[in-house]
Write a structure and sequence with these properties.
Helix content: 25-40%
Largest sheet: 7 strands, mixed
Structural class: alpha/beta
Distance between the termini: 22 Å
Radius of gyration: 21 Å
Number of helices: 11
Strand content: 5-15%
Order of helices and strands: HHEHEHEHEHEEEEEHEEHEEHHEH
Number of strands: 14
Bound molecules: pyridoxal-5'-phosphate
């Protein structure tokens, strides 16, 4: 059997006629950049997540950067985030000129440790980026209360957490902004790079819209020098089609996670993901911990199972982060988890027989 980590081909085959029709409409209208199809997507995304404004942009990374920049983050400021994330979270901070301040993670949720967030706040701290890692929501009630108490801005990194909820409220709607990636492999994926910022702040919406389109006030009149981070019409059209299925796909992901859990919970040597009492996890990744990670991963791979590691190296130990002056041992929880995690194949269309096959190989590999 061959089982991919994510199966984008199967998903496409299931919705091919609708996608082809949507693409041909964009081409017929030559609506290549922004325009009607991006606007339709923005409106649908806002109503789906119960938020006032969605601003389509070029990627999740640009959504994070534009949010920080529009909130006034600048050189000399500090922005707190997790050491267990994709590098883009930190790149967006560095791109504004601000200093990323990393914190360790909670060993159960894998999200940033909120005690350490509190103790890392200095007079220079301006913002926090909670990352809803693997699709598991951060405790946003506590995070927002820390932020309010210290007058800090909050930019949520929801790149892995479309439709995840904390305390019955969608992630992305707690902070000043919520940032989404539609990289093809994400829970809601475009057919190229794309992203979005959501916010209830109308002023901020205007600032970000202008900033991602060359600081343009009207045609060939520019208020500021800015950036090109626009969304393509094709991506807007593809996302509008896929959005009709995202609710269903999310429930399927949760059902797949429940199947994995029910088989793996009794295996002593496997630690399964935990969903907190107020959390609705959307399982962008289904991540387990095992003792002998590299050996187990090799066994899975040799059996045709494309399991992965998210992530093998935490941010503070990345070669690119040497300037931060971090050392091995600084964040022991994240370091330990990075040496133990495996992401098992996770996509809505995965079959029960495939899950059985994966868990059978895994049971043998851990013993
Ligand atoms: C994917 C991802 C991003 C970046 O999104 P792009 O669309 O690839 O730029 C940022 N943060 C996290 C946690 C991600 O997983």
């Amino acid at each position: 059997m061959k089982i991919p980590l994510v199966d984008l081909v199967k998903q496409y085959q299931n919705i091919k006629p609708e996608i082809m029709e949507a693409l041909s409409r964009v081409l017929d209208d030559a609506a290549f950049i922004q325009g009607k199809y991006v606007q339709d997507f923005e409106n649908a995304f806002s109503s789906m997540l119960n938020t006032e404004n969605t601003i389509g942009c070029s990627s999740g990374t640009s959504a994070l950067f534009l949010s920080l920049k529009a909130l006034g983050i600048q050189p000399g400021d500090e922005v707190i985030t997790s050491t267990l994330t994709f590098i883009a979270t930190v790149e967006a901070i560095v791109e504004t000129g601000a200093t990323p301040v990393l914190v360790d993670i909670d060993p159960v949720s894998y999200n940033l440790d909120l005690d350490q967030v509190e103790s890392s706040i200095t007079s220079k701290t301006k913002a926090i980026i909670p990352v809803h890692i693997y699709g598991n929501p951060v405790n946003m009630d506590r995070l927002m209360s820390i932020a309010r108490k210290n007058n800090l801005q909050v930019v949520e990194d929801c790149a892995q957490a479309h439709m995840a909820k904390y305390n019955n409220k969608f992630v992305g709607t707690f902070g000043d902004t919520g940032c989404f990636s539609f990289y093809p492999g994400k829970n809601l994926g475009a057919y190229g790079d794309a992203g979005a910022v959501i916010t209830s702040n109308g002023n901020l919406t205007g600032v970000i819209r202008k900033m991602l389109n060359h600081g343009r006030a009207e045609k060939y009149l520019h208020d500021t020098l800015a950036y090109n981070h626009r969304m393509d019409g094709i991506q807007g059209a593809v996302l509008s089609v896929k959005m009709k299925y995202i609710q269903q796909w999310t429930e399927q992901r949760r059902a797949v996670a429940a199947q994995y859990n029910s088989i793996l919970k009794d295996i002593e040597k496997v630690i399964i993901p935990q969903e907190g009492p107020l959390a609705k996890h959307v399982y962008h990744l289904y991540v387990i911990q095992v003792d002998n990670r590299d050996k187990v991963l090799k066994t899975l791979n040799q059996a045709g199972i494309e399991a992965g590691i998210h992530y093998p190296v935490p941010i503070h130990l990345q070669p690119a982060m040497q300037v931060g002056g971090y050392q091995p041992g600084d964040f022991p929880v994240a370091e330990k988890i990075c040496s133990r995690v495996i992401s098992l194949p996770m996509f809505p269309e995965i079959k029960e027989v495939e899950i059985s096959y994966i868990t059978d190989i895994l049971k043998k590999a851990v013993n």
